[in-house]
Amino acid sequence: MDPRRDHSLRIPRPDLSVALGTPNACNHCHRDKDAQWASDKSLQWYGSLAGKGFQHYAKALREGRRDGPGAPRLLNNLARDESQPPITRATAVSLLPRYLGQETFPTLQASLTSSEVLIRLAAAGGLERLPNQLKAVLGASLLTDPQLAVRIEAARVLADVPGNLVSRELLGSALKEYRASQMLNADRPEAWVNLANLARRQGDPETAEHDLKEAITIDPTFAPAYVNLADL
Hints:
- The longest helix is centred in the C-terminal third of the chain and has 16 residues, at 168-183.
- Helices cover 61% and strands 0% of the residues.
- It has helices spanning 14-20, 25-29, 35-46, 58-65, 71-80, 86-95, 104-111, 117-126, 132-139, 148-158, 168-183, 189-201, 205-218, 223-231.
- By secondary structure, the chain is mostly helical.
């Protein structure tokens, strides 16, 4: 469903090409035909079987990414649909913070305790838009999550929460893991930009400046480091 190769072998969806403009395998070969032709052929050949085994989440994610009509309802339903792959539901959860309300907020909250790591990870990132007090109440338990990825994402999100709202010990431990994970990729400028953003959130502009300049030293062509330095 995306021009980026993801090593999957999926049923061609020319019907989605007609509706959403996504690519499909049929027209990658039949370049002299359009998507409508491929969609009509699929329906002609397979009839009622044409829709069997299809993923039905493309519209929800598209509308969620473009603030389209019905986006909150579509994303909310997708995030709660346990018949869908965890990565799909996690993607929906990651988009929910744009549309928080009476229906979507409980879904984000429930996702924090999901048995699926990807969903908890997406929900942790979704807390970033919330007020500090609410963010701390909902995200504190993630600082001791069994999965490292969830712990360090929670640490990043809670890094600027006042000390009276979250355990300094738990946050400090998770932040230590976050910094270690970035230093694992310290030969990349992205890691230093991430560390700089963390320092900035914690009110330490000197360290943030140092880290951004380190990113530029590693890769003088890495534009995000210059942009962040200018903002700082």
